[in-house]
Every structure is written in C-alpha cells, then in structure tokens.
Design goal:
This protein is 64% helix and 0% strand. The protein is mostly helical. It has one domain. The chain starts with a helix and ends in a 20-residue tail after the last helix.
C-alpha cells in the first residue's frame, strides 16, 4: 500500500500536480504509523520499517534512466531543457554518492562523533 502511494505521488509530481504529490508525501509517515499501530508491519509486506521510500525512489530513478537512455538512443531529438535536467540529475546523484561514500555515513563515524562503537551515555 505504501509503495502504491509513493508511486501515485511520483506520477502526480511528474504530471505537474506537485501540490497534490506533496500532500501524499507528507501523509505517508502518518499512514505508515497508523498501519503499524493497527498490527500491520511494513516488513511483513516486503517493505522497510525505516527509510522505506529511498529504495523505491532509487529503483524508480534507475528504471526511468534506462528507459530515457533507450528513447534517446533510438534517435529521439533531445531538447535543450532535457539535456539541462539530465545534467542536474547527474550532479545531484554525484553529490549524494560523494556524501555517502566519504565515510561520514559509514559505521566508523557515528552521529555522536564516536568512531567504531559508541562510548557516549
């Protein structure tokens, strides 16, 4: 159910209904909590309890990038704005990758500043 709502929000956003998409996105944590309080566990349905949106979104990005690549390889003309958006998306993905691979998100560097295992109380 959560994945279906995420997909709906993404489709609304791509269709220009950004306000409606944002409403659905803002409701997702509450829907997830309600379902869990009602005995539904997201992990029972193959979804993650924490950060459940990022996997779907990364899969969606990958799938759409492959489809766009095939369309462009088939000789479809590329408008200037499309090239700009692709460059911006690439830059954003580079920034995310650089941040995650820099070590600030690995197990050695914890949010509290400890390295390895936490020594805070």
């Amino acid at each position: 159910m959560i994945k279906d709502l995420i997909k709906l929000a993404d489709n609304l956003d791509m269709s220009g209904y950004t306000e409606e998409s944002e409403i659905i996105d803002s409701l997702l944590p509450y829907i997830k909590k309600y379902l869990e309080d009602d005995g539904f566990k997201a992990s029972d349905k193959g979804e993650h309890n924490e950060d459940y949106m990022f996997e779907y979104q990364l899969d969606s990005i990958s799938e759409k990038a492959s489809k766009i690549k095939k369309i462009l390889q088939s000789g479809h003309p590329l408008e200037d704005w499309v090239e700009t958006y692709i460059a911006q998306a690439d830059l954003m993905m580079d920034n995310i990758y650089d941040k995650l691979s820099s070590g600030s998100y690995n197990d050695e560097n914890l949010p509290c500043g400890c390295r390895g295992s936490c020594c805070c109380e």
